[in-house]
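Good morning,

Both structures are done.
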Amino acid sequence: MKIGSLQIEQGVLLAPMEDVSDSPFRRLCRRYGADIVYTEFISSDGLVRNAARSFAKLRIEPEEHPIAVQIFGGDIPTMVEAARIAVESAPDFLDINCGCWVKNVVARNAGAALLKDPPRMVAMARALVESVPLPVTVKTRLGWDRSSIVICEVARMLEDAGVAALAIHCRTRDMGHSGSADWSWVARVKETVSIPVILNGDVTSARDVVRAFAETGCDAVMIGRAAIGNPFIFRQAKTLLRTGVEEPPPSPNECIAVCLEHLRLLIEYRGNEQRATTEFRKFYAGYLKGLPHSATVRRHLMTLDTYTAIADSLLQYAEQLRMLPALAQHTVSLSEPESVCTD
């Protein structure tokens, strides 16, 4: 897959996710093997109006590259101005969000609302391609609803407009996250265009990544919700792609060590311990998934708002897990290194 100067084979990418794919999480995912990461989606109106929240999302650390900044909006001149602002943060490429299905985005004629008016989507893409020096890509869905799947036609028009790559969430807007993603459309789009096509939707494991490449011929696979609290999925996917061998799941101690590192990074990034510990609560389910008595531990963690208290609780839990015979063979050091990645 080639996007501008980037050349990546069988790429496994971190999807843009609001309130999830911030800088600390992107850094962890890159370290664990994500080939490209995306920012949270950023409001074009917010950038043009100099909103602090929008500009904060443009903060990129050197170790996050390759990275795409994703912006959304319904007004083409505003999107062009926002794109020029976003370029100043020096991402590797820009991405246009044409797939967000939530009501407050669609109501602004942005995100998946553009699927109701493909010519306007294409006009927006063309305007950005012509206005910025970086490659421009698009992330979208199959169509507005299941009676209006237009992805093949849209893909052709976007390629003609100069878009460098297309990521497809294989559901329609009316599905949201319900139902099953229909990967077959990616294979059809691959027959239609020559630009890279990235598959997204229902990729929940390393096996899914391998299957997506094999079944659709996609150029890259994008992982969203399955990566929340689980950056290990990128290492697992890359290992399986490279060797054909599934690596074992991360040990309980590795999960807890990385969870605490992630929290430390977020506290440093936010500069506000209470805010960071509150925001972080969405990640506990992923990091502790499948561990004994984790539901009880999560409920307790939800009441804590300092790093010290959270670390004490998790390290005590890790010590309890170490005493379980079935888990003993998988334990690793619980010291808190700067980096726990071996990949």
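Second structure follows.
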Amino acid sequence: MKVKNVALVVFSMVAANIFTGCTPVSTLTGDKLVKQAQSNLIVQSNVDMTDVNVNTLIPGKVKEIKVKEGDNVKKGDVLLIVDSDTLAAQQAQVQAQIETAKSQLNAAQAARDAASAKLELAQNGARPEEIDQAKSAYDLAKVTVDRLKVLYDQGSIPKSDFDNAETQMQVAKDKYDIAQSGARPEDIKAAQAQVDQANASVEAVEGQIKQAEAALQGVNVNLNYATVTAPEDGTITQVNVEAGEVISTGMQLIVVTKTDEPSILCNVRETDLSKVDLEQEVSVKIPAYKDEEFKGKVVRINKDADFAVKRATNDNGEFDVLSYGVKVELTDNDKPLRSGMTAFVDFGK
């Protein structure tokens, strides 16, 4: 009777193990299942892919969305367009300001050239031919006065005509005298002041043009920002806005997942870290492709521990067993993978 009771207990334990799935498993990392097969270090983890958050550098209203979730995109592809009508109006306004300022610059430069020529004349004196011209003008004015005096004495012309001729003769004489003797110091000083004023006007207008061109450059940059493009090749995994929605800078608008560079981050306990080396080639099994074996390479071993996977016990020598992150990149993948897929990485013996 006791034998039957013992047999019944044994059968109950076996049945419990079968129906609860409780089989001896060696847990080598904190929250990841790690299996040992023929003394190989096999670590369970998940496929990881880099998510790139796409936002805008200018606020505004979404005019058009060019993609949807699941679309594959290349770097530079247009994802969405922000309404830029206001920016276009600013661009036209600034361009008009630049054109006006350039016209003002031409006028200021012409005035400067005239003032410089006048100063040069005052400083250097008249050329011989200019003196001859002044003398000829004076001689002609003198002859005219003599002729009109005879007519005036005869009563043939009014006194105003004779007075006007005398005035013109005096002006011609003064010019002739100046041409012979050169400009007075005060005349040179006045000419220099005109040149200085003209230079200041040119510099002021040039400053206005530079300021307007800088403003135009800023508007053009913002116009470029109105077209939001893909920063990397990948798949659109999130579209968080709709056409017509008002957005601000820094908002996560779209997420592009880089599916062409899948990796696996494994948590390896320190007691097994001797089996892992940088550039080490590993094999990877992904249950989604149960008949496929993928190749990978260790590209990073964290210098600092991530967490303790086992606390100090008598079994492990009274010390905490720490876990280190090990990144594996797949090297020959030609299968469509998804972020989060279960993966088993075999580091060998």
